[in-house]
Design goal:
Layout: E1 2-6, E2 13-18, H1 25-32, E3 37-43, H2 44-59, E4 64-69, H3 78-90, E5 97-103, H4 105-117, E6 124-128, H5 131-137, E7 142-147, E8 150-157, E9 162-166, H6 175-192, H7 194-202, H8 204-208, H9 212-232, H10 247-256, H11 263-280, H12 288-298, H13 310-324, E10 333-335, E11 338-339, H14 353-361
Parallel strand pairs: 2-9, 3-4, 3-5, 5-6
Antiparallel strand pairs: 1-2, 7-8, 10-11
Helix pairs in contact: 3-4, 5-6, 5-9, 6-7, 6-9, 6-11, 10-11, 10-13, 11-12, 11-14
Bound molecules: nicotinamide-adenine-dinucleotide and zinc ion.
Nicotinamide-adenine-dinucleotide binds next to helix 2, helix 4, helix 5 and strand 8.
Length: about 350
């Protein structure tokens, strides 16, 4: 079992990664998140698979109730936030209660936002069950819901008291979800650690076969990279922007696909396109885009937008830009393992539309 600290002053917490890590939940709750009553929040799929085990572990620390919502990104909504908050109030959970966010990124973001707002904020613990949630979304304290205007448009920063990633819970995760999670792990290697990037390639077969040791190694390293970036810049003023590599194009592709693509698949396409764009702009070194594409393809991840029209992607990026009242910004690689700086402490670039178009049309 690996324990990775996220040093955020009074909001510091530990991420525990390992097969069987769930067994530490009662002790972690007692020490880091004591409460009069616990609300375990999970989508119906994960509640069916792991609800009983997590309830039993939570119950060892205090009384607990399980609240579930239907699985799927479209349920990361204000409506589900309201339903869950009301159900917790009906169950009599007070200011001295706490939330256990159990599941993938949808459950983590939604349950985290319930915790951030319920009675002006109660503590919560993340128990991620998808690979994407283990390597990425459960760390960093971003919580929220989607609206018709876009993803994650209503939310709050609310750091968990602890994250417990039990890799044995991944044994039921469908293959495409495993590959989508590996896309974000590759991103961590691409922006910060070339050895990690290469190691994912070396362990490819073991990872796809859900070998616990291989998973543990890759998740622990990815988590350490994300924790390091987040600890540097918890509220996303500067360096945290590097985590957005692949996400300017990726989010647009994801939105245009009507969420037909998984987040990690859209990010795989986004990373490949942004690496090509960075090369055309003279920022990303020659060969980097090809190395990235090969690594993604080895994991059966997509690397180009296919039949999604470039105009629709450009429009989705512009829409995103409008909501931030700025220009479309990108984070670029210098090479595998290193992001490019645009200035002192700055990591974002704008790009001319003709070059974006050319990268999309490659
Ligand atoms: N907060 C952040 O920093 C952050 C970062 C990245 C992504 N996200 C968010 O995360 C979400 C995507 O997360 P996701 O891919 O985990 O989606 P998800 O939560 O919808 O999980 C994917 C699917 O896998 C199922 N599942 C989860 N764990 C399982 C298991 N162990 N066995 C079987 N099935 C399981 C779920 O029921 C769901 O159907 C998006 O909403 C994205 O915006 C947030
Ligand atoms: Zn992402």
């Amino acid at each position: 079992v690996h324990v990775i600290p996220v040093p955020l002053g009074p909001e510091s917490y530990d991420i525990t990664v390992g097969a069987g890590a769930l067994a530490t939940l009662p002790e972690v709750l007692a020490r880091r998140c004591p409460a009069a009553r616990y609300a375990v929040i999970a989508d119906t799929t994960v509640a069916g698979l792991y609800g009983d085990a997590v309830r039993a572990a939570t119950g060892a620390a205090g009384p607990c109730d399980l609240f579930s919502f239907p699985a799927g990104e479209w349920n990361k909504s204000r409506e589900q936030w309201a339903t869950l908050s009301d159900a917790m109030a009906d169950a009599g959970i007070g200011r001295d209660g706490a939330v256990i966010a159990l599941g993938g990124g949808v459950s983590g973001d939604l349950a985290g936002f319930v915790a951030a707002t319920y009675r002006r904020g109660i503590p919560f613990v993340q128990v991620p069950t998808s690979l994407l949630a283990m390597v990425d979304s459960s760390i960093g304290g971003k919580t929220g819901v989607d609206t018709t205007h876009g993803k994650n448009l209503v939310g709050a920063f609310h750091q968990p008291r602890a994250v417990i990633a039990d890799v044995s819970m991944l044994r039921t995760l469908p293959g495409p979800q495993v590959r989508a999670g590996l896309a974000e792990a590759l991103k961590h290697g691409a922006i910060a650690d070339r050895a990690h990037f290469d190691r994912i390639g070396e362990l490819r077969e073991a990872l796809l076969a859900l070998d616990p040791e291989a998973l543990e190694e890759i998740i622990a390293r990815s988590v350490a990279i994300k924790a390091d970036v987040v600890a540097d810049d918890a509220n996303e003023a500067g360096r945290r922007g590097v985590l957005n590599f692949g996400h300017t194009v990726g989010h647009a592709v994801e939105a245009v696909s009507g969420y037909g693509l998984l987040h990690g698949e859209a990010i795989a396409i986004g990373m490949a396109v942004e690496a090509t764009l960075g090369t055309a702009m003279g920022i990303t070194s020659a060969g980097t885009a090809d190395r990235l594409r090969s690594a993604l393809e080895a994991l059966d991840l997509p690397t180009d937008p296919g039949d999604i029209p470039p105009d629709a992607i450009l429009e989705a990026m512009a829409h995103d830009k409008k909501s931030r009242a700025g220009t479309v910004k990108f984070a670029f690689l210098k090479e595998i393992g290193q992001v490019a700086r645009s200035g002192a402490g700055a990591y974002t670039f704008s790009a001319p539309e003709n070059l974006v178009r050319a990268a999309l049309a490659r």
